[in-house]
Write a structure and sequence with these properties.
Strand content: 15-25%
Mean pLDDT: 76
Largest sheet: 5 strands, antiparallel
Number of strands: 5
Radius of gyration: 23 Å
Structural class: alpha+beta
Helix content: 40-55%
Shape: elongated
Number of helices: 1
């Protein structure tokens, strides 16, 4: 019976090695997701810069504090600093919903 007690310990060591690999993979996925989100926000801020030529009152997205949703491949929705930005990536249009629910188009 003493010999059998050794087997579960060895099996447990292999089991504990797997979550470490899974944690690394999850951390890598989180880094990639964050990089993608920042790229999308940067692209939307570029679109806002173009729209600001006609509408200088349009706010920009705060890269340090935002929430991003991508409901489909053409649209991105960002919440930042009390504003909601809806960007159509296909045609380059932006809608900004302000604190008073007023729509500012760009």
């Amino acid at each position: 019976m003493v010999g059998q007690a050794q087997r579960p310990v060895a099996r447990d060591e292999r089991i504990f090695a797997v979550p470490h690999i899974a944690d690394e993979t999850q951390a890598q996925q989180n880094r990639l997701r964050e990089q993608l989100q920042h790229r999308v926000v940067d692209k939307i801020n570029e679109m806002i810069e173009i729209a600001r030529r006609e509408r200088p009152d349009l706010p920009k997205i705060d890269r340090s504090n935002f929430s991003l949703t991508i409901p489909n491949q053409d649209v991105a929705v960002v919440q930042s600093a009390g504003f909601i930005f809806t960007a159509n990536m296909r045609d380059g249009t932006i809608s900004v919903y302000g604190r008073d629910s007023k729509v500012m188009m760009g």
